[in-house]
């Protein structure tokens, strides 16, 4: 090992092992800019030290950014000038089965032509890094248009380019955030976990459990027997929980000091369906924490299940959500396990307007407060 490598290794090691909650990240989705009333003016850079802007994609041999998304950049630049600790990350997001995208990253010449374009785009728009993510939902991928090793090669080449660019420009290296969703066995063929961890500075891991669309005795799911952000499960054979998903990634070769847990914090609303037979509740919508506050002010009660996860109940409505108490539990989990940090996968899930009367971004503020505690 060369002396420089040893020093680099040592600094990295000390850096990673001496801090908890290195990364507190909020994801701003272009979709939410359209659907919710969230605007860049709502963003508080002190509660979101890392802001991921979603999405950019590959099209016509180039990086394409939705206008709605790129229109927020000038505001972000002002925010960066005011708060030098604020870091901007662009989310490069592509459906795994898209032919043109596949063709780019599996062909060395093509990916080596694309990566410099990515670097230039990031630098020109004052980004501090990129998150590289595959959209893996139902019907999006076919084994014919995916190759687990070429995907890892793509990550390797991006990190190599970032390292070389930092040397030649003298600027801090651009950060590479990998992304893994291995909550389903079907996704296993998509991720070479050890290699993705090796080339990424950090890896965002989707860790929240899936939620049922129908609840009630008819489906053998009692109201208090489920929650879409439970850390642990009390039931044997229930593998749908954050801890199980995290352990799965680590067992496959993940590195805990690089693991950022991503949680979907939208409140899930269910409505009672009246009719013959057993009572049942159907999923009706998701909404943010402010909307939960608005409903709670009309009565009803709150029960806590699993690790202090709240469930709101009234005659017709059941809501599974997160509050300051349940998020504090999650940050404690991250710290106890020595993980890198926390990402809110859609920041419009928080009460960004302060409807609840607890100030703006009460959930992310709770995350920050717990992270700061020794
Ligand atoms: C209902 O769920 C319980 C655990 O929650 C399980 O022990 C039982 O076997 C299930 N019953 C049916 C009919 O699936
Ligand atoms: C909470 O509200 C639900 C629905 O109205 C009711 O079934 C339940 O008994 C209530 N729980 C408490 C502890 O009041």
Name its key features.
12 helices; alpha/beta; disordered N terminus; six-stranded antiparallel beta sheet; 374 residues; eight-stranded parallel barrel; binds 2-acetamido-2-deoxy-beta-D-glucopyranose; single chain
What does this structure look like?
The protein is an alpha/beta fold. Helix content is 36%, strand content 24%. The chain has helices spanning 3-18, 30-35, 67-70, 73-82, 99-106, 108-124, 148-169, 193-199, 242-251, 289-296, 324-337, 362-372, and strands spanning 23-29, 50-59, 62-65, 87-95, 129-135, 175-180, 202-206, 214-215, 259-263, 267-273, 280-287, 301-305, 309-313, 317-320, 341-344. The chain has an eight-stranded parallel β-barrel with strand order 1-2-4-5-6-7-9-15, surrounded by five helices. The longest helix has 22 residues, at 148-169. The radius of gyration is 21 Å and the shape is globular. Residues 1-18 have low confidence and may be disordered. The protein binds 2-acetamido-2-deoxy-beta-D-glucopyranose (NAG) (2 copies). The site of one 2-acetamido-2-deoxy-beta-D-glucopyranose (NAG) has 2 residues, from loops.
């Amino acid at each position: 090992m060369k002396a420089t490598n040893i020093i680099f290794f040592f600094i990295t090691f000390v850096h990673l092992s001496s801090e908890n909650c290195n990364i507190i990240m909020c994801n701003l989705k272009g979709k939410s800019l359209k659907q919710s009333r969230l605007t860049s003016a709502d963003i508080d850079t002190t509660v979101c030290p890392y802001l991921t802007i979603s999405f950019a994609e590959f099209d016509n041999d180039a990086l394409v950014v939705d206008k709605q998304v790129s229109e927020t950049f000038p505001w972000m630049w002002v925010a960066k000038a005011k708060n030098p600790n604020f870091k901007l990350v662009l989310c490069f997001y592509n459906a795994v089965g898209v032919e043109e995208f596949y063709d780019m990253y599996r062909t060395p010449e093509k990916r080596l032509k694309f990566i410099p374009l990515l670097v230039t785009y990031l630098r020109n728009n004052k980004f501090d890094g990129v998150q590289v993510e595959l959209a893996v939902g139902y019907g999006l991928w076919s084994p014919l248009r995916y190759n687990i090793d070429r995907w890892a090669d793509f990550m390797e080449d991006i990190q190599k380019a970032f390292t070389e660019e930092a040397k030649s420009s003298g600027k801090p290296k651009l950060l590479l955030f990998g992304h893994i969703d291995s909550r389903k066995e079907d996704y296993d063929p998509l991720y070479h976990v050890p290699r993705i961890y090796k080339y990424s500075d950090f890896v965002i891991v989707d860790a929240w459990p899936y939620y049922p669309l129908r609840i009630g005795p008819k489906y053998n799911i009692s109201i208090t027997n489920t929650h879409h952000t439970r850390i642990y499960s009390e039931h044997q054979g229930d593998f749908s929980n954050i801890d199980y998903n995290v352990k799965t990634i680590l067992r496959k070769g993940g590195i805990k000091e690089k693991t950022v847990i991503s949680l979907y914090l939208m409140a899930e609303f269910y409505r009672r369906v009246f009719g013959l037979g057993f009572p049942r509740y159907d999923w009706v919508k998701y909404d943010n924490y402010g909307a939960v506050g608005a409903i709670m002010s009309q009565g009803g009660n709150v029960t806590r299940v699993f690790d202090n996860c709240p469930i709101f109940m009234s005659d017709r409505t059941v809501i599974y959500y997160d509050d300051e108490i349940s998020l504090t539990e999650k940050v404690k989990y991250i710290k106890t396990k020595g993980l890198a940090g926390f990402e809110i996968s859609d920041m419009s899930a928080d009460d960004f307007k302060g409807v609840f009367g607890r100030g703006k971004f009460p959930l992310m503020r709770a995350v920050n407060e717990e992270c700061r505690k020794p």
